[in-house]
Amino acid sequence: MAVYTEVSDVELEAFLADYGLGRLLSYKGIAEGVENSNFLLHVEAGLFILTLYEKRVAASDLPFFLTLMEHLAARGLPCPQPVKTQNGVTLGKLAGRPAAIVTFLEGVSSRRPSPPQCAALGLALGQLHRAGADFDLVRPNALSLESWPSLFGTAKERAREVQAGLASFIADELAFLAIAWPRDLPRGTIHADLFPDNVLFLGDEVSGLIDFYFACTDFLAYDLAVCLNSWCFEPDLSFNVTKGMALIDSYQRMRKLTKAEIEALPVLARGSALRFALTRLVDWLNVPPGALVKPKDPLDYIKRLRFHQRCKSARDLGLRDPGREL
């Protein structure tokens, strides 16, 4: 979450008039994240989140995201519900941007997830994949393998500003992944961005899964790889295999990985690390003037990628040996 577009109280009050949520009491921008402009709304009906969609989010994709949240919540997943206007519409326009209001969920994100929280996340991810199995809408992953070369192309000439030799390192990794990337794994609806700041906890229990604006149809195991990268590295960027084991074990209680998925997991983890390194690199080099946003360091994910390059199998990521009880 972030704020790129400022909203005046006059504009916001006019926008809210269609929702029947009562009088606007207060609102404030939310600085975390890097993709959309987000505000915490306090109205007479309670607390809500207002999102103005920017940058990589195409307006044509918004019905997919909003319908998915409704679908998952109907199947027991704790995720935000889009709020409809009095005419039954979930998507509007505010300050020249597509905009929607969703329900506010209680809970806090973990800045340094514990093994029990990694286990709870694994269960929630498995539940998400099961709940999405009968979701009819399809959205290709706009930030998967095919898009990475062009994304890199927008930052290649300036990559040396971040680290010497970074452009050649990324080019070599892209060449490897173009050959090694799996072609035939179980697919379904994935979150694709389930970082710790997109998961809310009450204690060690998941109370909310939020920010579905990268959700798409892709390899289910890729979603697990995204979580291994974002949940299981320590502040010094060493991999915590105990957290990896907790995450994978709990996920497999909801959905067993296939042999092909297990074999592909190290490559999926490399691809996931590169995907986030690339988007962070582009964001790092292109912060809009005056934006209330702090770009994230792309080198954090380059260091994760270097770890994955040394992995020999999924056991290095926390997968238990075959035959050991979960």
- What structural class do helix, strand and pairing data support? alpha+beta
User: How many DSSP H or I helices?
Assistant: 9
Largest sheet: 5 strands, antiparallel
Question: Strands of the largest sheet, in order across it?
Answer: 1-2-3-5-4
Helix content: 25-40%
Shape: globular
CATH topology of the largest domain: Aminoglycoside 3'-phosphotransferase, Chain: A, domain 2
Work out the number of β strands: 9
Q: Please give the CATH class of the largest domain.
A: Alpha Beta
Number of domains: 2
What fraction of residues sit in β-strands? Answer: 5-15%
CATH architecture annotation of the largest domain: Alpha-Beta Complex
Distance between the termini: 36 Å
Roughly how many Å is the radius of gyration? 20 Å
Elements, N to C (H/E): HEEEHEEHHHEEEEHHHH
Fourth CATH level, the homologous superfamily of the largest domain: Aminoglycoside phosphotransferase (APH), C-terminal lobe
**What is the mean predicted local confidence, pLDDT?**
93
Q: Residue ranges: pLDDT <50 for 5 or more in a row?
A: none
How would you portray this structure in words?
The structure is a single chain. The chain is of the alpha+beta class. The chain has two domains: about 10-105, Phosphorylase Kinase, domain 1 (2-Layer Sandwich); about 115-315, Aminoglycoside 3'-phosphotransferase, Chain: A, domain 2 (Alpha-Beta Complex), CATH 3.90.1200.10. It is built from nine helices and nine strands. It has helices spanning about 10-15, 60-75, 115-130, 150-155, 165-180, 220-230, 240-255, 260-285, 300-310; strands at about 25-30, 35-45, 45-50, 90-95, 95-105, 185-190, 200, 205-210, 215-220. A five-stranded antiparallel beta sheet has the order 1-2-3-5-4, with helices on one face. Strands 6-9 form a two-stranded antiparallel ribbon. Strand 2 and strand 3 form a beta hairpin. The longest helix has 27 residues, at about 260-285. The radius of gyration is 20 Å and the shape is globular. The two termini are about 35 Å apart.
